[in-house]
Amino acid sequence: MSPPAAIDTPSTLAPNEPGLTEAEAQVQVMKFPMPPKFDDPYKERAYLKGRLAAAFRIFGKYGFDEGVAGHITLRDPVNPHTFWVNPFGTAFSLIKASDLILVDEKGVVIDGGENRLLNTAAYMIHHAVHEARPDVNCAAHSHTIYGRAYCALGKKLDTITQDACAFHNVSGFWCFSHTYTAVVFWVVEDTHTQTNVPTVFFR
Ligand SMILES: [Zn+2]
């Protein structure tokens, strides 16, 4: 039996790696998967709506929802001044891409599934975030058991872990955890904070 021809052949593909064989040089290095790029914003919209629906399913699976509370919004690639959000009353764990509703900058539902009920708080909070941060395409708002339990303590996160460092000096966290009295109905943009997170008022 003759030996495999390629095994001991010096590589011409990677001349700066002495001793590398042709077969070794042809091994593809694994790359981290990246989001696909689209030339057509309508195709991008369809793709991202599928991802948004999947995000709701994941939130539902891990119990990040609470009744009708909580939202995840997605800036629309066709009209970046509008965003997609979950319709009021539809369970996170059941949401399909075709259920999502499209909300314009005035809070009017202009497209989406059969249930076009919009939670006023969803519009007030998420519109302010999307307007204040054009670089942010998605905003997730949950009512997790752990998050609510911690907020009831009325204190900031100590920066004692890598995860907590992400919230260092983030006034939005402070605001959301300290000023809650009821459902959100108005928002004042605060461009002076480090993160440009709008200040949200409740009543
Ligand atoms: Zn929300």
Automatic annotation (TrEMBL):
It holds the Pfam family Aldolase_II. It comes from the Eukaryota. One of its GO terms (cellular component) is cytoskeleton. Residues 50-195 form the Class II aldolase/adducin N-terminal domain. One of its GO terms (molecular function) is actin filament binding. This is Arad-like aldolase/epimerase. It comes from Periconia macrospinosa. The lineage of its organism: Eukaryota, Fungi, Dikarya, Ascomycota, Pezizomycotina.
